[in-house]
Design the sequence.
């Protein structure tokens, strides 16, 4: 994974970083931790500047999330009702659950989008309900960009502080990612077997 990312980043510089960060939010297996971490290493070596690096990463992350947000907005909550009626069993959701999630988003949607930027599995997924439940584009962009800027700054600092040792993290990311996926599958299977829709 490191070799692939470094090849792209060396070829395209800040533009490549923005594109990779956009893809990371649409195709989660591409890890932002490595993209921005490697960028941080290059900052320490004088090959990149910190502010353009964070700006490129934040722009890419916001754009990638906005694609999923736009899909949610285009689909809309009205069409979601029919989808839940037909496929709620596999989603382990009924319409009352959707209405409850909608109320939570109406009250706390901005903070939910912001906080989920720091969660590996949630940072992309949260964009869909934000669009489905009618969050304004401006609010979504502001809170997504704010969370992404902070997260990317932390990753760049980590890459700068750890230097070349940051590459060793790649050996641990794959098993951790597999473990998270296994836990998610087991959790979903358990919920699927035990879930019952409310009347």
Sequence:
């Amino acid at each position: 994974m490191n070799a692939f990312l470094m090849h792209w980043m060396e070829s395209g510089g800040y533009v490549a970083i923005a594109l990779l960060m956009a893809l990371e939010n649409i195709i989660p297996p591409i890890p932002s931790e490595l993209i921005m971490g490697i960028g941080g290493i290059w900052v320490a070596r004088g090959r990149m500047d910190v502010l353009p690096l964070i700006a490129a990463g934040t722009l890419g992350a916001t754009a990638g999330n906005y694609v999923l947000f736009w899909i949610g907005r285009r689909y809309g909550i009205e069409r979601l009702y029919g989808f839940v009626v037909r496929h709620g069993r596999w989603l382990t959701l009924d319409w009352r659950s959707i209405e409850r999630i909608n109320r939570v988003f109406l009250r706390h949607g901005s903070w939910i989008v912001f906080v989920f930027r720091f969660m590996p599995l949630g940072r992309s997924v949260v964009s869909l309900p934000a669009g489905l439940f009618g969050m304004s584009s401006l609010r979504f962009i502001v809170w997504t960009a704010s969370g992404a800027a902070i997260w990317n700054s932390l990753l760049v600092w980590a890459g700068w502080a750890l230097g070349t040792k940051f590459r060793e993290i790649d050996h641990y990311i794959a098993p951790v990612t597999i473990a998270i996926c296994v836990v998610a599958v087991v959790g979903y299977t358990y919920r699927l077997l035990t879930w019952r829709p409310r009347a």
